[in-house]
Amino acid sequence: MNKITIAMIEVGYGHKGPALALQRALQDLLLDSGSVEVVDFPRYVGAFRSDRSLKNSWDMALKSPFLVRGAYVAMEALYPRHGPLLRLMLSDFFTLGGEYLRSAPPDLFIATHPLCAMVATAARRRYNLDFPVASLVVDPFDAYSLWADRAVDGFFVHSAEAHRRLLQHRIPEDRIKRVPYPQLPAMEVSQRNREEIRHEYGVGESGRPVALVTSGAQGIGKVYGFVKRAFREGFPMDFLVVTGKNGDLYRDLSSLGEKTEAGSPRLISLSYVKNMGDLYAACDVVLGKAGASTFMEALRWRLPMVFTEWAGQNDYLLLQYAVQNGVGWYAPRYGAFIRTLASLAASQDRSIAQERMDVLDFRFGTDEIADRLLQLQRNFGGF
């Protein structure tokens, strides 16, 4: 039976979401002839020190972005000699991940986080294993040095920009394939109509525009403070605010939203939700941190996005792409934020942004990715 492992690290939904979408597509293709598992790789193999370090570092990066930006610059400068440093810093991950792969080698290993691919190629060299390793580069517009492991057999990217970055890192062009961006669950068309969803949450009355506020699963970001201030000042827009795992923020915003007077703008606080597709369907604009899954979901729903911050350089390149193409705005200060919202409150400006989205060179869908991966497995060494 064909055994496929999809390895990710749950530092934000940007790595987990594509892995789960790909799992479904591969299972549909294989039917009963194979198994497809998605694993949070360091935790799965028992590398708890590395797991804590990576996840704590991500939370710290959200609060202090300059740290991850510095690490990005350092890794780019060290490439391709950063391997020994990473193996030292994450020694339990490389050791236990390698031992796991030696004891239970897959027929195909797919990574949606670059460190997972590095562990797999290191194990393959160390133990003389024989299985293909593929990287699904989930950063839409970047393929930075950690992705560019020259021992990986196939790289799957979603844009000309990411393709070019791999070439700059001297990855052979015949190993790079451009594919659609994975169809995440939140991109699927809602079974409910827009007005029904708005009525459920009590937003959009009298034609007031509705904003979806989201800043990742951790619920960390300056956008929440901006929205609280805009709401207190009576800005004529309703806010559906997803706070994720941030319980304190959820309770704070719930208390604030309860003070709404009849006919006034609404602020609805939501914690960890499973119906993001409904929320996108109900909204006119998206507000939050620059992140791959959020921006790509907004793009799929044809919703302009206002970015209040970015963490790593890969997120900055995403933000830059959105701003240069007129489908997103960067507002890191409250004054710019409120001016941008005032502009987007006009339906004409939102329509212009949607027209620009329609001509972007982007496709969505997971079936083609799954098919290409199985082709790589059959050929093992090329497309």
What's the gist of this structure?
The protein has 17 helices and 12 strands. The chain has 383 residues and is α/β, with parallel strands linked by helices.
Question: Main attributes?
Answer:
6-stranded parallel sheet; 17 helices; 2 domains; Rossmann fold
Characterize the structure shown.
The chain is an alpha/beta fold and 383 residues long. It folds into 2 domains: 2-183 and 364-379, Rossmann fold; 190-358, Glycogen Phosphorylase B (Rossmann fold, 3-Layer(aba) Sandwich), CATH 3.40.50. Helix content is 49%, strand content 14%. It contains 17 helices and 12 strands. Strands 2-1-3-4-5-6 form a 6-stranded parallel β-sheet, sandwiched between helices. Helix 1 (13-30) packs across helix 17, helix 3 (48-63) packs across helix 4 (65-78) and helix 9 crosses helix 12 (276-282). The longest helix has 18 residues, at 13-30. The two termini are 22 Å apart. The mean pLDDT is 93.
